[in-house]
Design goal:
Length: 462
């Protein structure tokens, strides 16, 4: 049952579409996901999400747990409307050497999307305010396989000291969740007028806190999953009244069904469930027209990074990138873009940095043990380790961290693949193979009779 106060407002907002809107809330939500283009090809028979080059719809929900390449970051299960961030990103004038902040990043849908849109010369800072949500964010970032990323755990106010640092800030603001009503019954139960007002106030505080860290000429993407004007267009007007901004329009295709709003020269984009194949969503793109042109990184900042021991210089050949530097952290060697080290040092001075770059290997005395995250890296040199293809059951047994037999005469470290996608490392001893899949990421369910993964059909029929 939808709240009466919510229905009363919707009837005022969308008087001619009210009945269709309400009926759409009872419909089954669409199933969508976004492919990692550096790991997996777009299935030829899949229906594409119109506003996202790597987004597709599925006809039915598969068991993602029973798909080995899901656990290896080949795709991310994401609601289709939120993929519209891609269209906002494509309107930005500068396209290299950017520092981008995803402020409320967990569980990682928009951050992994941004990593696919960014160039290797860019840096993503993926932040999550709530400490308990940071681990899932970090896991999804690691699986996506990029090294030009920093994960941190900070309140929006902590970024105000980094004045003018960011070229782009994405604020996917915590909201009243009206756009999730047909997907999440708890969102209906938690809804109240008081809560929507509280959300609108909190969103303004977040915007005020984060605004100084956006450089002059930088872009703010502001989004919510609600229909509430107080959290959407009214917050946009408030931001424009208190700052010098330019509202950037986003070209639309008529068949998308996305609704453009323009109020006093300010553009907003609304996704209504009876007009699009997706959930409720709002997005606006703003360009800052005042403030600092750039953040000045002090040369007095002492680096906390420990250089890699010289005896491990061979590891530079493990990656295909030429601009990576390597650092030792505890017993791990981590790759990170060399030209972004001053930025990392500045972030580490001001923020609670959880992780950075790509863990490539663990070192013990003079031995190098390849890390699981290196197996999943999009920058991994395929010539370094031999690989072996597994069938579906063996691939899942590997991800359950159970013993598997390797059909290879090669002994030592080997990559195991499924459908050509790397899953992780084993150490083949001949009569058996030691399984190095991370214990904390292992599949815990018992394996049933296994259906073919969804892409077996989608790849070959049209």
């Amino acid at each position: 049952m939808l709240p009466i106060d919510f229905l009363d407002r919707i009837k005022i907002q969308f008087p001619t579409d009210f009945d269709r809107f309400v009926q759409s809330i009872d419909q089954v939500p669409a199933i969508s996901l976004r492919i990692n283009p550096r790991k997996f090809g777009l299935p030829i028979a899949a229906e594409q999400v119109s506003w996202c080059e790597t987004g597709i719809f599925l006809n039915e929900r598969p068991s993602y747990t029973l798909d080995p390449i899901f656990h290896s970051g080949s795709y991310y299960v994401q609601e289709a409307s939120s993929m519209f961030v891609e269209q906002a990103f494509r309107q930005m004038e500068h396209d290299s050497n950017r520092i981008v902040l995803d402020l409320s990043a967990a569980p990682g849908g928009k951050s992994t999307h941004l990593l696919s849109l960014l160039n290797s010369s860019d840096l993503l800072v993926a932040n999550e305010v709530i400490r308990s949500r940071v681990s899932v964010l970090n896991e999804n970032i690691r699986k996506w396989g990029h090294q030009n990323v920093v994960v941190c755990n900070n309140d929006p106010a902590d970024f105000s000291h980094l004045e003018g640092l960011f070229d782009v800030i994405l604020v996917d603001a915590p909201c009243s969740g009206e756009g999730l009503f047909r997907r999440d019954a708890s969102a209906i139960q938690q809804w109240s007028v008081d809560n929507t007002n509280l959300c609108a106030t909190r969103q303004r505080r977040i915007l005020a806190d984060i605004w100084p860290s956006l450089k002059n000429g930088g872009y703010l993407i502001y989004s919510t999953c609600t229909f509430n004007p107080a959290e959407n267009e009214e917050n946009l007007k408030w931001l424009a009244e208190n700052n010098e901004v330019e509202s950037v329009s986003i070209p639309l295709q008529e068949n998308w069904g996305v609704q453009e709003m323009e109020i006093d020269g300010l553009f907003g984009y609304r996704f209504l469930p009876h007009k699009i194949k997706g959930e409720g969503f709002f997005l606006t793109l703003i360009r800052k027209k005042n403030g600092s042109n750039s953040y000045s990184i002090s040369k007095k900042i002492k680096s906390r990074l420990e250089k890699m021991p010289k005896q491990f210089a061979e590891i530079r050949n493990w990656l295909t990138t030429e601009n990576s530097d390597f650092f030792a952290k505890s017993e791990f060697l981590i790759a990170f873009p060399e030209d972004k080290i001053p930025v990392l040092n500045a972030l580490s001075e001001q923020l609670r940095v959880i992780s950075f770059g790509l863990p490539v290997a663990q070192f013990k005395k003079n031995d190098l043990l390849p890390e699981h995250t290196f197996a999943l890296s999009v920058d991994r040199n395929p010539a370094i380790f031999e690989s072996v293809e597994l069938n579906l059951r063996d691939a899942l047994l590997f991800q359950k961290k159970e013993e598997i037999r390797i059909d290879s005469s090669t002994k030592g470290w080997m990559l195991v693949n499924f459908q050509g996608v790397p899953l992780g490392f084993v150490k083949n001893l001949g009569n058996r193979a030691n399984n190095y899949f991370p214990k904390e990421w292992r599949i815990r369910m018992a394996l049933p009779e296994l259906p073919d993964p969804w892409y077996f059909t989608a790849r070959h029929t049209k």
